[in-house]
């Protein structure tokens, strides 16, 4: 889901540029839904796998945090 959110940011910036818009568009709403929608998935994964395989689960969770940060950094950088 983070990769999808990052793809939306990149596609939007490629097609329309990085100028700030007066109103949030479809891309912004899709980004928000993807970023918020992955939280229950991450929570389920952590609850299910962290007790059984803590090292592997921590590695996957760290990767997920990095992917989420990669999707959030362009939004922060361009002040969208």
Description:
The structure is a single chain. The protein is mainly α. Helix content is 79%, strand content 0%. The protein has 3 helices and no strands. The chain has helices spanning 2-16, 26-49, 54-77. The longest helix is centred in the middle third of the chain and has 24 residues, at 26-49. The protein is elongated, with a radius of gyration of 15 Å.
Relevant terms:
80 residues
- N- to C-terminal separation? 19 Å
Instruction: Give the C-alpha Rg.
Output: 15 Å
SSE order in H/E notation? Answer: HHH
- Helix and strand composition category: mainly alpha
| Beta content | under 5%
Q: Work out the helicity level.
A: over 70%
Overall spatial form: elongated
Number of helices: 3
Largest sheet, if any? none
Tally of DSSP β-strands: 0
Question: Strands, helices and their partners?
Answer:
Elements: H1 2-16, H2 26-49, H3 54-77
Helix pairs in contact: 1-2, 1-3, 2-3
């Amino acid at each position: 889901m983070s990769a999808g959110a990052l793809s939306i940011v990149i596609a939007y910036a490629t097609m329309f540029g990085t100028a700030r818009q007066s109103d949030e568009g479809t891309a912004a709403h899709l980004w928000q839904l993807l970023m918020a929608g992955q939280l229950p998935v991450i929570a389920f994964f952590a609850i299910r796998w962290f007790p059984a395989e803590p090292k592997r689960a921590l590695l996957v969770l760290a990767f997920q945090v990095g992917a989420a940060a990669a999707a959030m950094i362009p939004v922060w950088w361009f002040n969208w």
